């Protein structure tokens, strides 16, 4: 249990590092500035634990950017589509079964991604981000 938790924290830390790297690159390409806010979408199925992600972010963003840098996380619900009947549905409690036909293989169409949505820098410029 201890090991699993530690492993998870390491995972979030490396994700945050990847994110900050990308943010730094985007902001530098855009002319630089102090990063004020980072908005992200985190899928329910992405394996990212929002609380751990936020705490890793708070710690790392202070070193990389500024103390005022905020993180806004939007949690995206998991959606899937049935390959047999085409039914689109929201996946509850990891129940990957088509509610219409109950048999078809399903494909996750939303909720398995971590996505950088926007970056706000001090000049009030908003840079639109890319998929991580
Ligand atoms: Zn179906």
TrEMBL record:
Binding site for Ni(2+): 11
Keyword line: Metal-binding, Nickel, Zinc
Keyword Metal-binding listed: yes
Function field: Involved in the maturation of [NiFe] hydrogenases. Required for nickel insertion into the metal center of the hydrogenase.
HAMAP family with a match to the protein in the record: HypA_HybF (MF_00213)
Name of the protein described by the UniProt record: Hydrogenase maturation factor HypA
Any GO MF annotation of the entry: nickel cation binding
Native organism taxonomy: Bacteria, Pseudomonadati, Planctomycetota, Planctomycetia, Planctomycetales
Family of the protein in this entry: Belongs to the HypA/HybF family.
GO biological process: protein maturation
KW Metal-binding (keyword) present: yes
Residues where Zn(2+) binds: 82, 85, 98, 101
